[in-house]
Amino acid sequence: MSESDVRVRFAPSPTGYPHVGNIRTALFNWLFARHSSGSFIVRIEDTDVNRKVKGAVEAILDSLRWLGIDWDEGPEVGGSYGPYFQSQRLDIYQKTAQHLLAEGHAYPCYCSEERLAQMRAEMAQRKESIRSYDRRCRNLTREERAKFEAQGIVPVIRFKIPLEGQTRFNDMIKGDVAFDNSTLDDFVLLKSDGYPTYHLANVIDDHLMKITHVLRADEWLSSTPRHLLLYSALGYQPPLFAHLPMILGTDRSKLSKRHGATSIIEYRDRGYLPQAMMNFLALLGWSLDDHTELFSKEELVQHFSIERISKTSAIFNLDKLKWMNGVYIRNFSTDALTDRLLPFLDRDLPQSVKRPLSREYVRQIIPLIRERLTTLGKVESATGAMAEAAPLYDFFFVDEPVYDTRLLLGKKLTREDAVRGLEAALERLQALPFDAKSLEDALRPLAAGLGLKAGDFFGLLRVAVTGRTAAPPLFQTMEALGQERCLKRIKAALKKLQDKR
Ligand code: GLU
Fold it and tell me: For ligand 1, what atom is nearest to the CA of residue 215?
């Protein structure tokens, strides 16, 4: 049982996979509910039959679960105000629409799609601002209606917007908002197939589910006067409204695929951590004090307030998310990180790498790569290029790293020097305890003995054993790779150089 009367809802339409904006809305509602010891309700607004996407409901619930957002009422858990799928509540909407008709707040409209399209085209021609409806059926006589009915036309039901006056409300974020009723159309409440529109179903359910606060995306602001008029026609007490700031890309345009992935599931699959994602989403339009960046889930619940939601748009910065993810990654213990990284390695490493992967081996390399990990999986940059995690650690696992022979020489070494260097290293490494300290103690003087700069010599070895010019610390890396692998890779490097001679 919740301890307060606060009841908020997340009301997604399953018309696609949930994106950052949807889930930010869910998170703010959830944080507000948990902060106020209220209830968080999930309601699926699935009345737009044509736009329903298969698998979308599961994707929405999976996204919430992944982030650790739990719901008190809704799909799977039920609750006293169900059903929580609007498609299972059609009779309620139909009855209410009939009631509005009977009370004179609504009217049947027989206009066909063709007529409406023509009407709009004519408005455009007359350079009028386009309205969705010209109210032609608002004042039909009883006889005229009967004529349409006799033709077997099934009407839609439209709401009668007052022709004059204003609808005002106090948005908890935006403050006073006013709409002239003359700018509002007689919107459809019930479609001819018996399905309600968003407006009707949303208002009825918020009322029946005893929602106290509606926190929703900015794009719904212009629906709110319609909803308020509907609340009033139905004699319902409206909830309080808070319209959340928009989320823009770093170029200040509407957030889209161009700014990186937008579906939450995609972030999960790329190896972002739910803790980091939650932290990041919470700061898209909310802040505690304009400078604190890192918050645990508990801290967010503790501090969240509607007062601190910003009026101005939030900027979605993928680099910041990566940074934050890196911070969370580094905060994990080696064991915890091993558990989280293993499934990603299993998925992302080339097929040639033997499975199952050795947990012990992964555990051993984690201290070497942790500092540079920003995600656990293969990452795509905003521009779509593959980068980071996988190549960063691939060489620890593959049989032989693939690289360009020229990398072995770097900027300074001649082929002869490189061959000499590798031969000497090979000999020295045959009979050496393979720990980082012994390796360093042996290899540093070896460079000097060969007349090579330590940096050049180590660069050569680094490429030979990892295939990369930048890699984790050389001697620890060699220790983790082990003697057998190192010798094999150095031999292969030698061969590459000699083959080119
Ligand atoms: N079903 C609407 C959506 O997809 C709900 C909007 C609202 O919260 O009222 O976002």
Answer: 8
Which residue ranges have their beta carbon within 6 Å of ligand 1? 11-13, 45, 198, 202, 216, 220
Q: Tell me, what's the pLDDT at 238?
A: 98
pLDDT in tens, 104-144: 999 999 999 999 999 999 988 998 887 889 999 999 999 99
**Has residue 391 got a pLDDT over 90?**
no
Distance (Å, rounded) from C-alpha 418 to C-alpha 463?
A: 11
Question: Cα(first)–Cα(last) distance of the chain, in Å?
Answer: 79
Burial 398-416 (b: 16+ CB within 10 A, else e): eeebebeeebbbbeebeee
Distances (CA, A) of 393 to 99, 261, 338: 66, 23, 13
- Would you identify the CATH topology of the domain 89-244? Rossmann fold (3.40.50)
pLDDT in tens, 459-488: 999 999 999 998 899 999 999 999 999 999
Nearest protein Cα to ligand 1, atom 5: 11
From 9, 13, 222, mutation site for ligand 1 pocket: most ligand atoms within 8 A of C-beta: 13
Taking the centre of ligand 1 as the mean of its atom positions, its distance from the CA of residue 9, in whole angstroms, is 10
For ligand 1, atom 10, name the residue with the nearest CA. 12
Residue 265 in tokens = 């599931």
If you measure from the C-alpha of residue 11 to the centroid of ligand 1, how many angstroms do you get, rounded to a whole number? 5
Which residue puts its alpha carbon closest to atom 3 of ligand 1? Answer: 12
Provide the CATH topology of domain 3-77+247-315.
Rossmann fold (3.40.50)
Q: Cα(56) to centroid of ligand 1, in Å? A: 15
The 10s digit of each residue's pLDDT in 68-77 is 999 999 999 9
Side-chain-side CA neighbours of residue 389 (13 Å): 26
Whether the Cβ atoms of residue 31 and residue 297 lie closer than 8 Å to each other: no
Residue 199 Cα to ligand 1 middle (Å): 9
Per CATH, 3-77+247-315 and 89-244 having the same topology is answered yes
Active-site residue, 257 included: yes
Q: Determine which one of 147, 254, 257, 354 is catalytic.
A: 257
CATH number of 405-499: 1.10.10.350
Sequence ranges of the domains in the chain: 3-77+247-315, 89-244, 332-396, 405-499
pTM for the predicted model, two decimal places? 0.92
Q: What is the mean pLDDT of the chain?
A: 93
Question: Do strands 213-217 and 240-244 pair parallel, antiparallel, or not at all (unpaired)?
Answer: parallel
